[in-house]
Amino acid sequence: MTVTGPDFVALQVRDVPRSAAFYEQHLGLRRIPASPPGAVVFATQPVAFAVREPLPGVDLDAGRPGLGVALWLHSTDAQALHDALDAAGVPIVTPPFDGPFGRTFTFSDPDGYAVTIHDKA
Questions:
Q1: Above 90 in pLDDT, residue 93?
Q2: Cα 43–chain centre separation
Q3: Contact 53/79 with Cβ under 8 angstroms?
Q4: In what order do the strands lie in the sheet with 102-108?
Q5: N or C: fewer beta carbons within 10 Å in the chain?
Q6: Are 79 and 43 in contact (CB under 8 A)?
Q7: SS3 string of 90-112?
């Protein structure tokens, strides 16, 4: 038996409809036709990405959600996405810079998750 790598990533969020709308509106993600109850799954490649209700015992107000986890998403144009998010008032945690993964920056989503965007394929 061998683990071949991640094949699903979900963020536990305070308000699923609000978070789903954020990722649709600001990142252009599209929902798959059917998601499980309490979640919205997006048609992302190569790994599915979702927002979902918190599991029992998860307190999203106990600290910064996702502390210690790095969530990176690929964009075809990180600078353009940064500029659109910044213009929309989305908090930018790390401004754009050029690095080994192309143009890269980090923003904070509505629940405080730090999400890094890069554009190198």
A1: yes
A2: 13
A3: no
A4: 71-74, 114-118, 102-108, 92-99
A5: N
A6: no
A7: CCEEEEEEEECCEEEEEEECCCC
